[in-house]
Amino acid sequence: MNSHRLIQTRRHAFPIDLDHTALLVIDLQNDFCHTDGFCSHRLGADISNVRNIIPRIQKVIDWARQHGMLVIYTRESHKPDLSDATPCKQLRYENAGYPLGTLGKMGRFLIQGDRGCELIDELQPLETELQIDKPAQSAFIGTNLEAGLRQRNTTHLLFTGVTTECCVLGSYRHASDLGFYGLLLEDCCAAYQIQEHQSAIEVLLGENGAIGWVTTSEQVLTAI
Amino acid sequence: MNSHRLIQTRRHAFPIDLDHTALLVIDLQNDFCHTDGFCSHRLGADISNVRNIIPRIQKVIDWARQHGMLVIYTRESHKPDLSDATPCKQLRYENAGYPLGTLGKMGRFLIQGDRGCELIDELQPLETELQIDKPAQSAFIGTNLEAGLRQRNTTHLLFTGVTTECCVLGSYRHASDLGFYGLLLEDCCAAYQIQEHQSAIEVLLGENGAIGWVTTSEQVLTAI
């Protein structure tokens, strides 16, 4: 069966090639999405938006697995000594009120080995799936993600995760610039503030489609 | 004299180090900003927003030169055979209604050697300044920009140019992820649609400052 299909999006149709597509699940970690995680427990963030997308991502993961698609989970994370966090990143997170490595109820914020840094229980990878630790907001910096995708001849990426304007948009733009065809599933991405999510979507829809493709999980699942 | 200063921004103060700062002027090219360029002449885009920033960028360039700062001008551009444009980028620009290489009044859209691709007359580099051709939206892909900045020990970057949500934001996010301290001068950046500019600024201001710093040229020039 031909693996090429067209998926309807907010602007132009997205030409997917199912045999060369991977699903990215970005930063669904306890520190961002669990009631005891850093953002909710220590910062008092309202995590309802980021939790709302979990069942929809589960559905897309099930669908991807049924189609033999690779699923890749990223974690924004650092070594305990923060040697992989640039001074600029450390300052930005300090300014924002959540210094990397600060102790919370589930361990140090975004530190590898601590419970807060782990993926949420609801979205645990299978043995055959990939988990990638990324020290930057883009998943393509300081990781072997690009090499791994090239090695598998992956050319198309579906984007889900948190937060839309931060690590999802940063990773999308980078992937796109590297030549990967990216499709963002807007109902499977979220930010704490709905306005920040919307701004990121508007950026992706900018320039009449020269930046990227945005659709819903329903469009993807009904097309294939 | 100490080269370290604090500049007020829309959120947190930006700690500049004048001896290690470069000014980036992104894609002020005829095709984007000239009345005979591709976007205005062929697409009928209203270029008033992108032209409004020219005198302000000129003022910042004068100031940067007075302080012995490196000024770097980028051009979004491709070889005449488009061998440096990924198929994904070619499709996105086709979708958007402006295929790379389409003939306009000033030559082929964004093709090196043609007049439309050149920097506008008002913002020509000095002999000692850098001009960088970039095949992607981020200035750090397919270029030697990062290597050049590291070699000069440049750690801080001021961002100006067009369009805010496309090549400016893409370059900013990439620079930031690479560890460069980025400061975006919002009155020296523009998009054709004001809403697209605003969305990009909102993305940068997102997460309470964990993504980036945004200020005005006036704040920079009065601080130093």
Describe it for me?
The structure is a homodimer of 224-residue chains. With 224 residues, the first copy, chain A, is an alpha/beta fold. Chain A has a single domain (4-30, 52-84, 119-223), classed as Rossmann fold (3-Layer(aba) Sandwich). Chain A has nine helices and ten strands. Chain A has helices at residues 30-33, 38-42, 48-52, 54-66, 87-95, 145-151, 164-177, 194-204, 217-223, and strands spanning 4-7, 14-17, 21-26, 70-76, 103-104, 107-108, 130-134, 156-162, 181-190, 213-215. In chain A, strands 7-4-3-8-9-10 form a six-stranded parallel beta sheet, sandwiched between helices. A two-stranded antiparallel sheet of chain A has the order 1-2. In chain A, β5 and β6 form a beta hairpin. In chain A, α7 runs parallel beside α8 (194-204). The longest helix of chain A has 14 residues, at 164-177. Chain A is globular and about 50 Å long. The model of chain A has no long low-confidence stretch (mean pLDDT 97). At the A-B interface, α5, α7 and α8 of A face α5, α7 and α8 of B.
Brief summary of the model shown:
The structure is a homodimer of 224-residue chains. Chain A is an alpha/beta fold.
Could you say which overall geometry of chain A the principal axes of the C-alpha atoms support?
Answer: globular
For the record, the CATH class of chain A is: Alpha Beta
CATH homologous superfamily assignment of chain A = Isochorismatase-like
> How many beta-strand elements of chain A?
10
**Rounded mean pLDDT score of chain A:** 97
Report the C-alpha radius of gyration of chain A, rounded: 17 Å
Strand order in the largest sheet of chain A = 7-4-3-8-9-10
Number of helices of chain A: 9
What's the structural domain tally of chain A? 1
Which percent range fits the helix content of chain A?
25-40%
Oligomeric form:
homodimer
Using CB atoms under 8 Å apart, which protein chain pair has the greatest interface?
Answer: A-B, 47 and 47 residues
CATH architectural designation of chain A: 3-Layer(aba) Sandwich
Largest sheet of chain A: 6 strands, parallel
Strand content of chain A: 15-25%
| Contiguous runs where pLDDT drops below 50 for at least 5 residues of chain A | none
Structural class assignment of chain A: alpha/beta
